[in-house]
Amino acid sequence: MAECHTGQKRILVTGGSGLVGRAIQHVINEEGGGKEGEQWSFLSSKDANLMNKEETQAVFQKHKPTHVIHLAAMVGGLFKNMRVNLDFWRNNIYINDNVLQAAHDVAAVKVVSCLSTCIFPDKTTYPINETMIHNGPPHQSNFGYSYAKRMIDVYNRAYVEQNGRSYTSVIPTNVFGPHDNFNIEDGHVLPGLIHKAYIAQKEEKPLVVWGSGSPRRQFIYSLDLARLILWVVREYNEVEPIILSVGEEEEVSIKEAAEAVVRALDFKGEVVYDTDKSDGQFKKTASNEKLMRYLPDFPFTPFDKALKDTCDWFVANYDDARK
C-alpha cells in the first residue's frame, strides 16, 4: 500500500524509554539517523498509561502524530510469562487496542508495531517465516503474550481493509543492547546472564545458567533493530509483517551465549547449568529472507562486538540500569 503523506512527519514512539525506544533515540540523536522534515516524540509510562483509553487518546491528541512506532508492551522473560499469562494477555490487548484506535482517531497515516518471534506456532517447521504466524498455537509458556501480539496482525489487516490506513508490524528475534532490562528473575536470557555473571564475578561464585544451555536463539542488537525500524517507517509499505533478524546461520545456543558473556566480562569463575529450571522453547529459527530481498547488504553488528558493547554499557551504568 502506497503512502500518500507529504510534508512534516510527526513520528510518535510508544515505549520510547525501553530497550528499542532508547536505541531509536540513539540512532536519531547520536548517529544523525533523523531526516529533515521529521519531528520525533518518545513516550514513556510517565506520559500516559496506555492501558487506559482516555489517557491514550489524550496523549495522541496532544502530539497528533502522522506516523507511530508502537513499541509499548507488558514484557518479561520465560519465568514471568509462565506465572502471569492472563496479565500478559489482558494488558497487551488493552494497550494495542487503545494505541491503534488513537492513531486512527488522529488520522495517522502509518503505524509500525513491534511483535516477537514467540508468537509463532510451537509445533512448526523451520525456519519460520511471515506467512506462518497463525498456523497453530504458540508455546504454552507464554501463550498470553503471544496471542495478544498476534492480534496486532489481525488489527492491522482490519484497519487497512476498513479504513485504508498503512498499518504494519515488524517481528524481531531476541533483542539485546544498552538500556535493556537486566532483571535476573523477569528479564530475557541475555541481559539476565550478563547481570548474573557480573554478580558472580564480584562475589567470586560460579555463574549459574538456568536450564541445560541447549535451546537456540537468534539475537539482534538493539541499534541494528532501530536502524531497520527507521527503514520500515520510511520505506516498507506492505501490511504483512516483516521479520527483522540476523540470518539462520547466526543462531547460537544458550550455552554459546553464556560463553560469549564470560568472554565479554572476562569472567574467571566456574559456569554451571541448573537443569531443574525450564528450557522454554527449544528453538524458533526465523528466516530473514524477506528482509534480505529488500536490504541485501544491511551491515549487522557482529554478535561478539554487540555483546561486548552491551556488557561495557551495563558495567559503566550499573547503578542506573534497569535490574
From TrEMBL:
GO terms for molecular function: GDP-L-fucose synthase activity; isomerase activity. Its EC number is 1.1.1.271. It comes from the Eukaryota. Pathway: Nucleotide-sugar biosynthesis; GDP-L-fucose biosynthesis via de novo pathway; GDP-L-fucose from GDP-alpha-D-mannose: step 2/2. Residues 11-247 form the NAD-dependent epimerase/dehydratase domain. CDD domains: GDP_FS_SDR_e. Keywords: Isomerase, NADP, Oxidoreductase. Coiled coil: none annotated. Belongs to the NAD(P)-dependent epimerase/dehydratase family. Fucose synthase subfamily. Catalyzes the two-step NADP-dependent conversion of GDP-4-dehydro-6-deoxy-D-mannose to GDP-fucose, involving an epimerase and a reductase reaction. This is GDP-L-fucose synthase. It comes from Muraenolepis orangiensis (Patagonian moray cod).
